[in-house]
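Example record

The entry below shows one chain as it appears in the dataset: sequence first, then structure tokens.
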Amino acid sequence: MAHQLLKGKRGIIFGALNDMSIAWKTAEAAHAQGAEFVLTNAPIAMRMGEINKLAEQCGNAPVIAADATKEEDLQALFEQTMEHFGGKIDFVLHSIGMSPNVRKKRHYTDLKYDWYHQTLDVSAMSLHKTLSTALKLDALNEWGSVVALTYIAAQRVFPDYNDMADAKSLLESITRSFGYHYGAQKKVRINTISQSPTVTTAGSGVKGFDEFISFSDQMSPLGNADAAACADYIITMFSDYTRYVTMQNLFHDGGFSNTGVTESVISKFGNGE
């Protein structure tokens, strides 16, 4: 349902790979709500994905390749985006995450450390680099909004989430720290959204994902939030209705984060299953 919540707003959406991704759903929702935006991803991800198809669906949105771990790529991205729009932008979605250790099934107690550094760089430090570049270029309008995607493994142990849990912890810390400085200097707000486990290309690579997503659904009073619902929440965070929300980690998980146990989970033990 479109209400033109983002009419007149312009932004950058990182990380749309295919129609399973939250960034993809967010682009579709932002377009429906009247926003204009640039789509971006790392060159290798763009070759693997279908970002040009999404661009066509969203009014032929510009597509600019950028490796978010490289400051020179980010500078070019923001400069080209502002040139395209003829001025500053209003929102950024950081939907980037990758762990070679998870992909290669390295146990958390036996990480390959160059891969570990890559996990932190791609999944968390890239947010700091993005924000730093935007601030130096004064690329975001006052009351602009930056949203990054995280997961509750930043606060609680989910063994198979591996070193991505550390990356999400760092991501949330950057959100708070940079959120203070960017807010004080430019009135730009920065938040993370802690989403339910979601069927995406990245999420599906975690060991035991199918079993865990079923468990999470039974542990959440409202059930798991899907990618489209997350996109709707992101739209509200880009809108003017949330202009005083910043430095927050916002749970969008059907109540999972505040639920100790549910009857459906307890019944599994009662039946001897």
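Notes for this example: The chain has a mean pLDDT of 94. The longest strand covers residues 140-150.
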